Amino acid sequence: MSTQYKTHQEGAKEFNKNPDRVTWHDKALWFVREKRDISAHSIPEWEELREIASQVKAHSLSHLNKYLEQFEENAKANGVHVHWAKDAAEHNQIVHSILEKHKVKNVVKSKSMLTEECGLNPFLNDRGIEVVDTDLGERIVQLANEHPSHIVLPAIHKKKEEVGELFHEHLNTEKGASDPTYLTRAARTHLREKFLNADAAITGVNFAVAETGGFVVCTNEGNVDMGANLAPVHIACMGIEKLIPKVEHLGVFLRLLARSATGQAITTYSSHFHRPAEGKELHIVLVDNGRTEQLGREDFRKSLNCIRCGACMNTCPIYRRSGGHSYTYTIPGPIGAILSPGKDLKKHSSLPFASTLCGSCSDVCPVKIDIHTQLYKWRQLVMKETNYEKSKQVGMKFAGKAMGSPSLFNLMGKVGNIFLKGPRAFIYNGLNAWGIDRELPVPTETFDDWFKKNEKKNDK
Amino acid sequence: MTSREKILSAIEGINLPSKELPITPIFEGLSEDKHAFFFEMLNTLGVEVIVSDNDDQLKDIIKEKQQDGKVYSSIPDLGADDLTVNKDEMANLNLSVIEGQLGVAENGAIWVNGEDLKHRSLTAIASHLLIVLPYHKIVWNMHEAYTYIKPQDHGYGVFISGPSKTADIEQSLVKGAHGAKSLIVYIQK
Question: What ipTM describes this predicted complex?
Answer without folding.
Answer: 0.98
